[in-house]
Design brief:
This protein has 457 residues and is α+β, with helices and mostly antiparallel strands. 35% of the residues lie in helices and 9% in strands. It is built from 18 helices and 10 strands. The strands form 2 sheets. A 5-stranded mixed β-sheet has the order 1-2-3-5-4. A hairpin with a 4-residue loop joins strand 4 and strand 5. Helix 9 crosses helix 13 and helix 13 packs across helix 14. The longest helix has 22 residues. The radius of gyration is 21 Å and the shape is globular.
Length: 457
């Protein structure tokens, strides 16, 4: 049977882990004005458990069964596909309305926000929802996840809130993975950029900052591409006609495992670094680090990755995550011309009180998807989902731009903001090196990029 991911119902978001900021040792002009100096506190109000999920559309043809089918703890307790089929199984030419008929929420605003974003979503994204049976958005859902046991996804509403009133209904419990890898001597960082500007910011769930729809559009798109990639990995279009509707989702997917995509990726274009695959079990699965792993430097870890083809370090945790991170990184590049920057940095001596100057890069790159090996594997993934097209071919041939290496020995913020020419002079002008509140929250979000900045798996 397809195993449920560990902790899929565990709740999380680091307290204060999501407030806007451009980073750097001093406040940046890129910082959103509504976050600067904000010290107000938002208490939780009306946080509801997953047992309070309800059908967003009361008149959905699946309203009576949706909750019971989507909220089981064991795949053996799931409904059969006769009761709750995959969307494309029930309606091959499904529309956005059919997707909304599969939506569960704990608060109306969550459904309204999802509907608003779905209305604007490109058709290439909408078609991927066909591989789902349900979508659930609830106060305590964290991390966002796909589970083959039900064939559904659950989304963390930390990605969706705009107002203070909305954020107050979202849990602030920590992501269960936040303590993993404590014995390692490096941190991994990642961020999204559009040219010289940040493509997205991290906002706090506990202060009085607010945000606009534009602030969440790119992060939510990346999250959805990631989770939908998991769904299509298990249920690509070629698999749909042969599904046995009498079976439960896990059994039906298992019976069609010859169509699964990520195992084929590993046959055709595998990842080779055994060191990183083992290390990722420490960082993302909670395994105990070996003495050798505890002594890995950022430069050594980067050397492993620089010779391999994953889009993100998180991709080494499982071949499913490798597949999903390749796809999401490629698609946000295509849709928004967003570059993914990543680096391994030396862990600071004081992990609770550090500045950018303490985050020395041992290895890093800008626009990781443009690496030739990553590009080859990402194209394989995109074509495995959509099939070959001249548009895809042209995008990978000329639309990725160039990868550039970060400067080793220079801090993450300088490398991220491409300020390496003056990095050695930081602090000489007498400017304060203390991080502002929003810059620190931005850094924490970039450090926890394994969750896609939005608590996903």
């Amino acid at each position: 049977m397809i195993a449920r991911k560990a902790g899929y119902l565990m709740v999380a978001c680091l307290v204060g882990a999501c407030s806007g900021g451009g980073g750097g040792d001093t406040p940046s002009e890129d910082d959103p004005d509504n976050n600067g100096g904000d010290t107000g506190f938002v208490a939780r109000a009306d946080v509801r458990g997953t047992d309070q999920l309800y059908a967003y559309r009361a008149d959905s043809p699946y309203a009576d069964v949706l909750r019971d089918c989507a909220l089981v703890d064991r795949s053996s307790d799931a409904c059969s596909l006769e009761t709750l089929p995959f969307i494309t199984q029930a309606t091959p030419d499904f529309t956005r309305e059919d997707i909304l008929d599969r939506l569960l929420v704990t608060h109306d605003w969550m459904g309204q926000r999802f509907e608003q974003l779905l209305t604007e979503a490109p058709e290439d994204m909408v078609t991927l929802f066909g591989s789902l049976t349900s979508i659930a958005i609830g106060s305590t859902v964290r991390p966002s996840n796909y589970w083959g046991g039900t064939g559904g996804i659950q989304l963390d509403p930390d990605n969706l809130w705009l107002s203070i009133e909305e954020k107050a209904t979202v849990s602030i419990e920590e992501d269960y993975r936040s303590g993993y890898g404590k014995d390692l001597q490096f941190w991994s960082f990642g961020t999204l950029r559009q040219g010289a500007m940040p493509a997205s910011y991290y906002y706090s769930l506990t202060n009085t900052s607010e945000r606009s729809l534009d602030d969440i559009r790119i992060p939510v798109s990346r999250l959805l591409y990631h989770e939908l990639a998991h769904a299509v990995d298990y249920l690509p279009s070629a698999s749909v006609p042969t599904l046995d509707a009498s079976l439960k989702p896990a059994d039906a997917l298992e019976a069609n495992q010859q169509y699964w995509l990520s195992p084929q990726l590993y046959l055709d274009l595998p990842l080779y670094s055994e060191e990183l695959q083992s290390l990722a079990q420490v960082s993302y699965k909670g395994q105990q680090a070996t003495i050798e792993q505890m002594n890995y430097s950022p430069a050594l870890v980067g050397a492993f990755m620089g010779n391999d083809g994953a889009a993100k370090y998180y991709g080494y945790s499982t071949h499913r995550e490798d597949f999903a991170t390749l796809f999401a990184t490629a698609m946000i590049k295509r849709d928004f011309d967003v570059d993914y920057y990543m680096a391994f940095v030396q862990k600071p001596e004081d992990e609770d009180n550090y500045e950018c100057t303490d985050l020395t890069v041992g290895w890093g790159v800008r626009n990781r998807i443009a690496d030739p090996t990553v590009q080859l594997r990402a194209k394989w993934v995109v074509e495995s989902i959509y099939g070959y097209s001249t548009e895809i071919d042209e995008f990978f041939a000329s639309g990725l731009g160039q990868q550039s290496a970060m400067t080793e020995g220079v801090d993450w913020c300088s490398n991220r903001d491409e300020l390496t020419a003056v990095a050695g002079k930081r602090g000489e002008s007498g400017a304060s090196t203390a991080l502002s509140e929003h810059a620190r929250i931005q850094l924490e979000g970039e450090r926890l990029d394994y969750t896609n900045g939005h608590h996903a798996e």
